[in-house]
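Researcher: For the record, we're logging two predictions in this thread. I'll number them. Prediction 1 follows.
Model: Prediction 1, sequence and structure:
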Amino acid sequence: MLAEYPNGFAELMLSDEVNRAIASMGFGRPTEIQSRVIPLLLEGRDVIGQAQTGTGKTAAFGIPLIEGIDESESHTQALVLAPTRELAIQIGEELRKIGKHIPGIGIATIYGGASYGRQFDDLKSGAHVVVGTPGRVLDHIGRGTLKLADVDYLVLDEADRMLDMGFLPDVERILRRTPRERQTSLFSATMPTVIRILSRRYMHEPATVHVEPLQVTVEAVAQVYYEVADRDKIDGLLSLIERDPPERAMIFRQMKIGVDRLVATLKRRGLTVAAIHGDMSQKAREHVLRDFREGKLTYLVATDVAARGLDIPEVSHVFNYDIPEDAEAYVHRIGRTARAGRSGHAVTFVAEWDADKLPPIQRHVGGRLERKLLPIYERR
């Protein structure tokens, strides 16, 4: 859904430098979350935004954040927390694009799995904005290389994923290091009770903005599910690949150990495949993603947490080898395909003990989820 700004971002009264930047980024009219959140943040309000990846939320908090930075001051003025290294990198890159016409503005991205040298240099040179994962942010605080006493703006992105990954205690430790009078914005695809408690504890009369998930992508995806015994999943997957070979595909599993086992099996069957999960080093992840983008790999097997926030190119097929926990996770997974006007395919395996997870997904996507019989069962 687009905003009610017929003249685009011009009506938001942004600076010339930011307007130039977002024009060069190809932004036309604001998305719904941008049109609703940007004015609130420019007014100085705390904001809770419930929105999924792909709705434009990075620019929604990034534009007001960059507008609020005083580049004549050398201290850290803004902190953005993200649950994964990949998302932190992605946010940092977008903020640099938004601020590229503002001379002297410094943006540092800090995360685990990378050397400290560059991060020390960026922080020492006077980073106005710091984007980081909770663990590495705390590490730099402990080393004295990051000081938050004068932070004016704090953003928590994908707060529900931070909770899932066990970062809540770290996040609270960081929050307690920042001034009470800061402006805080929190973004999350879901709003579990713990996130609401966090917002009540650390935010001041926040405005709440709820953006419904974009359904365009879902409607463009051919969605099918197969009831399958666990012992038949491998043969079932290979039979589908043989019948309709993907140009590029993502395969989702729930657990890291399951990802590794499936990758090993598929390699033995001759497929060009690699894994993405939280136990891999940053260098290893970047190498895998580069090979995937360049077409050296056809298949990428991932967990939900690892895949969130990754800059992954268009895929023709998404395979839910393990059925996702809820409808929102399902939409997020299949949203990896059918982008930029292209069609896509989403396949979900439903084992007997996971049958209770299927009805909520069916209710969410309606009649678009079709039941089919696996080729291996057709022959029996």
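Researcher: Logged. Prediction 2.
Model: Prediction 2, sequence and structure:
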Amino acid sequence: MSDQPKPAVAPRAATAILIACGVLCAALAMGLRQSFGLFLAPMTAAHAWSASGFAFAIALQVLLNGVAQPLCGQVADRIGGRTVIMGGAVLYTLGLIGMASTSDLGLFTFFAGLLLGVAVSAAGMPVVIASLTRLLPESQRGRAVGLGTAGTSFGQFLVVPLAGFGIGGFGWEMTLWLMAAAALLMIPLALPLNDKPAPKAAATTEETAREALSRAFRTPSFWFLFSGFFVCGLHVSFLSVHLPGFVHSCGLPVAVGAGAISLIGLFNVIGSLGAGELAQRWRRRELLVAIYALRGVVMAVFMMLPKTTTTVLAFSAVMGLLWLSTVPPTVALVARNFGTRWLATIFGLVFLGHQIGGFTGAFLGGVILDRTGSYDLMWTIGILAAAFAALVHLPVKDPAPAAPAARPARA
């Protein structure tokens, strides 16, 4: 298979600009997305909507993000990530304008749920890091993916507080309009991500998308990675949605729960950068086994400790290091096993597993709390899931980099 486009070692300044633009693009896309929860109270009060109606639109967005990701990935693999990200930025802008302009809950669901669900997929982290992986040489990919993943947390820290300040100072409508204008910044940021595949030579035989997907579906390593990323999503969504409530149920102030989520995001920057560096030096399979095993140990120890402000914040800091540190080695393994030609498509399908796990973690946590009155069973499930994820990565194939003109090794 011709693994196009073949990365060339760019001048250092050009490489730095490429990585910086990719990181900022991912940061902006995630930061805007993570801000939507701030609008629940003011918008439901202004329009007399139910909280569940607003929440359904956002939940629909998350679910559609997972479903649309492999489709956006395949388009990016065919025409290049730059064009897809720019299109996503336009959809992002239209969705935010629609949120600001409508007072009808059905239309709001269309803009916030359907339109922005596709926009987040087109302009989000998977497409960005797939483009960076294709454009950079093997020696720089792990670091770039780590930076791109860390950028999502950087965006959360930068954009979410600014959105909160805007709502308090200018009102929710003006803030949505300003966010729509900010979304357009992703268009110039995407300009360096020019990974459009080179035209095929007449005598060149290139693997088609259908052939690549068929090969992935027949490969056990794909399903191992999919299953592991499901567990990652389950952990991330359970803690994001339910950790503040769990902390409050332990008799601690609400501010401790908010601080816990903030600390997770802060330490995720460190964890993602560290995982990107380690993915270039260690075998990626063993790195994933260690990350998931450590998650289980950290959760088990936390459950045995008294719940104080100190233990909650210490747990949050350590979990932050392990939060999205799974992304760089997972992307590297997908690229190693299946090549970079259809990377956005195949990683998009692995990412779908993450989003299904995310839906499961958020929903199951609520069901267990309603049925049992506590989160104890959910914590146990999270610990067992971590052990499963560590074990399921042991048989993943971690081949050496293929020669530039070679067909990717079959797992």
